[in-house]
Write a structure and sequence with these properties.
By secondary structure, the protein is mainly α. It has helices at 9-27, 29-39, 44-150; strands at 2-3, 6-7. The chain has three helices and two strands. A two-stranded antiparallel sheet has the order 1-2.
Length: 161
């Protein structure tokens, strides 16, 4: 906002302040009293006291409103913090339950795998080992019979002395 190299903003601010002051002097009861005080210097003390009371009253109202707004903001922040803490604790408890259930499931899976391992070992000992032995016995007998029938094997003579 520049006009011919100068800023317009200071002129707007000064114009607004002058307009506000004139509006106050000519548009309010307090402004009328100030105008009369300027034209009648004897009533100046009374008008100064009135102005002081007016300013104090308005300052108290504004301070009260600001205090109310600040109290509401503080209460809102505290409520938000409480809600955050409560939600955080709730989620932590929830995740702890999930972690506990996961641990239970993992433990159960480990126990099941151990049981299957033991069952597999038991099956191997009770079924497979005898089958392997029977298979080995069969091979031994079959090889012996083939050798006997084919006559390829050497027969040793045992002497009794």
């Amino acid at each position: 906002m520049k006009t011919n190299g100068s800023s317009v903003v200071p002129y707007i601010i000064v114009g607004s302040a002058v307009g506000g002051a004139l509006g106050y002097l000519f548009g309010t009861e307090s402004g009328r009293k100030i105008r009369q005080a300027v034209t009648r210097p004897g009533a100046l003390n009374e008008n100064i006291d009135d102005a002081r009371e007016f300013v104090e009253e308005k300052a108290q109202k504004v301070t009260g409103q600001v205090r109310i707004v600040l109290d509401r903001a503080k209460a809102s922040m505290e409520a938000g913090q409480r809600a955050f803490r409560d939600a955080s604790e709730k989620y932590q408890r929830h995740f702890q339950k999930i972690e506990g259930k996961n641990n239970e499931i993992a433990s159960s899976v480990h126990k099941t795998v151990d049981s299957l391992n033991k069952a597999a070992g038991s099956i191997e000992e009770s079924i497979l080992d005898p089958l392997y032995e029977a298979g080995a016995l069969y091979r031994g007998i079959a090889t012996g019979v083939r050798t006997f029938v084919s006559g390829k094997g050497r027969v040793r003579e045992f002497q009794i002395s």
